[in-house]
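Input/output pair, single chain:
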Amino acid sequence: MILRLQAVSRIPTFRTSFRCFSSAADHQLNINFAIIKAEEGKSFSELKDHPVLTLQGIGPKHSEELEQLGMKTIQQMADYKFYHLSKAIATLAPTEETGNRIETSQLNLNRGLIKEFEPYALQDLLEQPVHALQGLTPKAGERFASLGVKNVGDLANFKYCRWAEAIVTAAKFEE
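Output:
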């Protein structure tokens, strides 16, 4: 049996990959049904700093209501803590086994709910008014109602917050 030895280079080799950048004309991606016509050519990174009026369906009246709730820009809407809390409740609610909490469980949302709603099950919280969330007042609930958001479940699925969150997330993946 003859063994062949091959020379092995001790010099590291580096693989380089060059990305071929295509022109914008090659791309089909758009969010034309989510943003107003005048902003359709903007990048995700640019859009996140735009006012909420940039989103289709939000006019001056709704924009004012959202601003009173602390959402002036798409970025602020994407980061809205009450949206994220309600979304967490809605996401986890289907995982809850009704009436089967173990006595030693430490799970709670006490820093996110007003005292009255702390003992509620996740499924039940979805049907509660948005002012069940600690920091939102009944007046805030009225503002949300004018936007079609009547309860915690509605806030979790509020399409404008979802769009804003998606725009901000997409901006992280732009070149």
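The mean pLDDT is 90. The longest helix spans residues 159-171.
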